[in-house]
Each structure stands twice: as structure tokens, then as C-alpha cells.
Design a protein that fits this description.
Length: 67
């Protein structure tokens, strides 16, 4: 599991949007976004690149960085 910090989320709806977008990244098998912690927990058989995850959030106010 990879853990990332998400910035820009203002509500649980934002967390749902981030979760939905990240789950569509190739290779990702599961995503859980915790609004209170401002974290995304990404599961994949191999490490998914940070640029791929960043691209999934393009056009939003959300940013992602590796913990």
C-alpha cells in the first residue's frame, strides 16, 4: 500500500471525488481516501508512479504528494 497526502479537500465529497479519480489510474486496484487525515491509501500490485496519480487530479484543486 502506498500512502499519499492530499491537499485541497474541503469536505467528504471532495474525498469521494479524489477516490474516484485515483481509482481509474491504470494498475490501481483499490483506493481509500481519509478526509480527516487528508490521506489517500492506494493499493496496486506494483508501485504506481506519482506523475500518473497527479495526472488523475489535473483540472481539480487537489494536489497529491508521497508521504
Amino acid at each position: 500500500m502506498q500512502v499519499y497526502t492530499i491537499k485541497g479537500m474541503g469536505c467528504t465529497g471532495c474525498a469521494a471525488t479524489v477516490e474516484e479519480r485515483l481509482s481509474k489510474v491504470s494498475g490501481v486496484t483499490a483506493v481509500r481516501v481519509d478526509y480527516d487525515q487528508q490521506k489517500a491509501f492506494v493499493e496496486a500490485p506494483k508501485e504506481v508512479s506519482l506523475p500518473a496519480l497527479q495526472k488523475a487530479l489535473e483540472g481539480t484543486d487537489y494536489t497529491i504528494k508521497k508521504d
